[in-house]
Write a structure and sequence with these properties.
Elements (H helix, E strand, L loop, with lengths): L1 E11 L2 E12 L3 E5 L6 H8 L7 E5 L5 E4 L11 H6 L4 H10 L15 H14 L4 E5 L7 H14 L5 E4 L3 H6 L3 E4 H6 L2
Parallel strand pairs: 3-7, 3-8, 5-6, 6-7
Antiparallel strand pairs: 1-2, 1-4
Amino acid sequence: MKIALQNVEMAYDGKTVFSNLTYTFCLTGITALMGESGCGKTTLLRLLCGLETPKSGKIVGMPQKYTFMFQENRLLPWATALENVSAVCNVPTARQWLAAVGLSQEANSLPSALSGGMQRRVAFARALAHQSDVLLLDEPFKGLDVELRSKMIQLLRQQAKLRPILFVTHDPCEAQECDAEVLDFQQIARNA
């Protein structure tokens, strides 16, 4: 899958995040987008899915059917874990994904009754359950201990056989464990 940015400029309140960004992402398997905090990685994901509009330039090749997992869990506080996941799929599939992330017993729990790591896994299950052409994940393993992170990475690697994945991380170990192609976003933006 190729997604091309053509002379994209993005600014907030007059401060330029990046300008004249021209780059083609050739996404296969898992691609890890890395770089210092504040260099524009999250902004790039938001641009790709239309949550932000560039000041100028255009994005070509982004499929209409995508999944975006935010840095925040964005769970519906009034809905159970099962209802949060089944918002994007049928109930049997939602149950399968909750089991895959180790939360079968929490299916009827509200987010407020779950730990931060459990909430993150519900959000992750929901992202993986959503049928789409590409997965965009913003720090999907944030707040997970090493053992849980490894289990979630195995799920991600299985998904990479079905659709390309672009994820933001600050952790080179995560990228390595995912067997991801690593892109340095600061370097990409500098070379624009």
